[in-house]
User: Fold this.
Amino acid sequence: MSTLNTTQKLQTCLDFIDQRLETTSEQTIQIAEMIIEDIKNLTEGYQNAIANGNLQTHSELVRATQMNWVNQLHEIILEQTNRDLNGQVIIALKKFVDSLNENQVKYHSFDLPSAVASQQADEHEYLTQAEIDILMGQQNLFADTLKH
Assistant:
């Protein structure tokens, strides 16, 4: 795995998540279809059991089917809870992105906006809006004087 470059590692992680999501969706649909099929069979079997006087046998089949699905669904829930692979991959990608951002930021400086910089102790002084207005007024006054 260490022979992959960063781009390949990223693509591998994204492919993994994509495949997991697709597989999980397919499994969920298959499970739902099997449960529906069992329910249909049990419902039809109930009518036959009434007609043939086999309610005891049918009742045992219903119970066995229910327990089968409860146990299978419980195992699926435990497996997903114990190892959330998508979560592990997403955490690895987040660490990579955080590291990437941290390293990129080191080489890209930018100036603070004057409103922010004026609040910093080590920055040179910025003029207030009132001081700017006075200077602008003097400049206009100087321009008017030159015209005359």
